[in-house]
Every structure is written in structure tokens, then in C-alpha cells.
Amino acid sequence: MTYVKFATNVATLCIGLDFISNFINIKFAQGMSMLPTMDSGLYVVDKFSQNWRQWKVGDIIMFESPIERGALLCKRIAALPGDQACINPEGLEDTYCVVPKGSIWVLGDNLAYSRDSRLYGPIPINLIRGRELAKTLAL
Length: 139
Fold this sequence. Notes:
Layout lengths: L2 H19 L2 E6 L11 E6 L13 E5 L7 E8 L4 E3 L9 E3 L4 E5 L9 H4 L2 E2 L3 E11 L1
Antiparallel strand pairs: 1-2, 2-9, 3-4, 3-9, 4-7, 5-6, 7-8
């Protein structure tokens, strides 16, 4: 292989990896908050569609923790801006709030082990880092 062909292949690979890294990411999810839907493992996260796709109730997303800078959390969207969200879904007394514009309400599937909007309150949409697409590896 000539030097020019080798350099071309390396450049093509770098451009391809850069292109892919702008659209998807692989993240590690750990914990019990999303059981039984998700257990610990590596997940493919779609970073691109958040630029054009509307979020829906039921989407599983990764977002930056509103109280622990840099920590990524994985939860399910339970309410969108303008929706009523139940603050205490398992309690004896239901308390509701309206999700403000520019925010979402998230819950873990395993409510007993989830730190979610019941603790954090509404999550600003700009903290969303992507939507979970697929599991790649169980750990």
C-alpha cells in the first residue's frame, strides 16, 4: 500500500468516526431505577434526532443531572410542557404540578429506586443528551 493510499484511508476513517460521533454515542447505564426495562450495560444513544424530533411521553432519554454536574441519568419521559405531572404517583395523596414550557417530567420505571423529577422537579429540555436506541452489551 502506498503512503498516499494509506493516508487517504486514515483520513476517511477519521472523517467517518467524526461523522458518526455527532449522531450516536455509546453510554454505560447502571442502577436499578429503570428495571425491568433496562439493566446495567452499554446502550446506543441517538444524539442527532433531538435537533429535529419532538420528544414524546414514553421516550427513554439520557440527560445531564440537574444537581450533579456532568452525571448522565437515564429515565423515561412521563410528561411534556403543559402536561399535568403527578408528583407522588405511589403515595396516598396525589399532588400535581404543570410542567413548565422548556421542561419535561421524567420518572424511572422502578419508582422505588429512582431519583427522578419527583426529587429534581421538571428537567430543562436543554439537559437532554439523547434518546436510547438499543442495548449493545449486558454487564
